[in-house]
């Protein structure tokens, strides 16, 4: 629930920061859930999350990171940055999974992103709801003008087509590569015989 080690719990017990409700003869500590939930999270970091879709956008990733860190620095917030490279429709990225784990364990004070769609193409509202349930503040630097429903829908359809095209052609290129390797192997066998 807290994401801490037994050693940290022992240290907190010694300092009086968190005392167990009950302790067994074997040393197992039991805590009141209400005490765990009320622990001070003031030292928790602000998480800056930056994402781009492809390798050729790495400069944009650096710009996002710089902007996020500058914004947070101006506010005096202690930050950690999580960066991702991949589609906003890919939920298996290392960074987004780390972010979700930190949200669920309440290991952050706030989440800062440049634009709403930098988080996820679909599903960002779910992440925002999780943050709200955990008492984590969400800061979107560039809220700007909200696109119309039609503009948002067109962007979503384009994103879906792009992802599926990449998967389709990616799988074909793998098959083509294997076919070329097989043909080269056969050609070298013909030359040697």
TrEMBL record:
<protein>
    <submittedName>
        <fullName>Resolvase</fullName>
    </submittedName>
</protein>
<dbReference type="Pfam" id="PF00376">
    <property type="entry name" value="MerR"/>
</dbReference>
<dbReference type="InterPro" id="IPR051491">
    <property type="entry name" value="Recombinase/Transposase-rel"/>
</dbReference>
<feature type="domain" description="Resolvase/invertase-type recombinase catalytic">
    <location>
        <begin position="45"/>
        <end position="190"/>
    </location>
</feature>
<feature type="domain" description="HTH merR-type">
    <location>
        <begin position="1"/>
        <end position="31"/>
    </location>
</feature>
<dbReference type="InterPro" id="IPR000551">
    <property type="entry name" value="MerR-type_HTH_dom"/>
</dbReference>
<feature type="active site" description="O-(5'-phospho-DNA)-serine intermediate">
    <location>
        <position position="53"/>
    </location>
</feature>
<dbReference type="GO" id="GO:0006355">
    <property type="term" value="P:regulation of DNA-templated transcription"/>
</dbReference>
<keyword id="KW-0233">DNA recombination</keyword>
<dbReference type="InterPro" id="IPR006118">
    <property type="entry name" value="Recombinase_CS"/>
</dbReference>
<keyword id="KW-0238">DNA-binding</keyword>
<dbReference type="GO" id="GO:0000150">
    <property type="term" value="F:DNA strand exchange activity"/>
</dbReference>
<dbReference type="InterPro" id="IPR009061">
    <property type="entry name" value="DNA-bd_dom_put_sf"/>
</dbReference>
<dbReference type="InterPro" id="IPR041718">
    <property type="entry name" value="IS607_transposase-like"/>
</dbReference>
<dbReference type="GO" id="GO:0003677">
    <property type="term" value="F:DNA binding"/>
</dbReference>
<dbReference type="InterPro" id="IPR006119">
    <property type="entry name" value="Resolv_N"/>
</dbReference>
<keyword id="KW-0229">DNA integration</keyword>
<dbReference type="Pfam" id="PF00239">
    <property type="entry name" value="Resolvase"/>
</dbReference>
<dbReference type="InterPro" id="IPR048046">
    <property type="entry name" value="Transpos_IS607"/>
</dbReference>
<dbReference type="InterPro" id="IPR036162">
    <property type="entry name" value="Resolvase-like_N_sf"/>
</dbReference>
<dbReference type="GO" id="GO:0015074">
    <property type="term" value="P:DNA integration"/>
</dbReference>
């Amino acid at each position: 629930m807290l994401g801490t080690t037994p050693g940290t719990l022992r240290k907190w017990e010694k300092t009086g920061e968190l005392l167990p409700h009950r302790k067994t003869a074997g040393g197992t500590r039991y805590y009141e859930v209400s005490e765990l939930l009320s622990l001070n999270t003031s030292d928790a970091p602000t998480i800056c999350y930056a994402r781009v879709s492809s390798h050729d956008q790495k400069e944009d990733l650096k710009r996002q990171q710089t902007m996020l860190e500058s914004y947070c620095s101006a506010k005096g917030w202690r930050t950690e940055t999580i960066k991702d490279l991949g589609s906003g429709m890919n939920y298996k990225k290392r960074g987004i999974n780390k972010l979700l784990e930190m949200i669920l364990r309440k290991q952050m004070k706030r989440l800062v992103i440049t634009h709403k769609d930098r988080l996820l193409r679909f599903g960002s509202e779910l992440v925002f709801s999780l943050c709200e349930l955990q008492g984590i503040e969400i800061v979107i630097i560039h809220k700007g003008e909200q696109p119309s429903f039609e503009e948002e829908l067109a962007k979503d359809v384009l994103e879906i087509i792009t992802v599926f095209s990449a998967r389709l052609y990616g799988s074909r290129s793998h098959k083509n590569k294997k076919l070329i390797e097989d043909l080269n192997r056969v050609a070298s066998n013909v030359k040697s015989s």
